[in-house]
Specification:
By secondary structure, the protein is mainly α. It has a single domain, classed as Tetratricopeptide repeat domain (Serine Threonine Protein Phosphatase 5, Tetratricopeptide repeat, Alpha Horseshoe), CATH 1.25.40. The chain has five helices and no strands. The protein has helices at 4-7, 11-25, 29-42, 47-59, 63-76. It is globular.
Length: 83
Amino acid sequence: MGGKSQKQIPLEIQVLNRRAMEMSRNGNYLEALKIFSRVIFIAPHFAKAQYEMGRCLDILGRHNEAVERYETATRLDPLFVQV
């Protein structure tokens, strides 16, 4: 990740994002989506949250919404790459 957008994200939002990622890792995708939505509402420029929300949407079969989130993440941080 390019890092630029990460530095501008308040710590509380980064903590919420980590919580959502944990839920996603545990297969709790709907709950993760709720938290990612909050994160993005507060910090719409947070590329990692946009990407991770897209990943959850993709897993849930909501592919068009997922693509929009992936594109937003890339637009916000062109260096943003997930392996």
